[in-house]
Amino acid sequence: MDTHAQVVCERADVTTTDDATDEAIARADQAANEEWKQMARRVIESIIQRGGEFTSDLVQQVLAELPVHTHETRALGGIMREFARAGRIRSTGRFEKSTRAACHQNPKRVWEVVD
Fold first, then answer.
1. How much is the pTM?
2. Where are the domains of the chain?
3. Which of 56, 68, 72, 86 is the Cys-Cys partner for 31 at CB 3.0 to 4.6 Å?
4. What does DSSP say about strands 107-113 and 53-54: parallel, antiparallel, or unpaired?
């Protein structure tokens, strides 16, 4: 094994994928505008009241129309996790291509409201 590959493997052993994900979510959360995060939570609450299925694209679409913004929109992932851990929404196990141009049709998890 070459030296570079060995270093990469050793680093992979130190941090699990879950730990790395949690760290990235925490960094995004810290960098995001607090007012934007509160508004995102309100938007998700209103979507929950409506019921059915949705993706984060819908949340981002509504947020884009509001006067509050952040440079760190990835913080929405952590907010979605909050709602899932609270049992308010759950993954359907399906993904849809993003409709937002900035996302280049990346797959977005489809969430469903928990009754």
1. 0.79
2. 3-113
3. 72
4. antiparallel
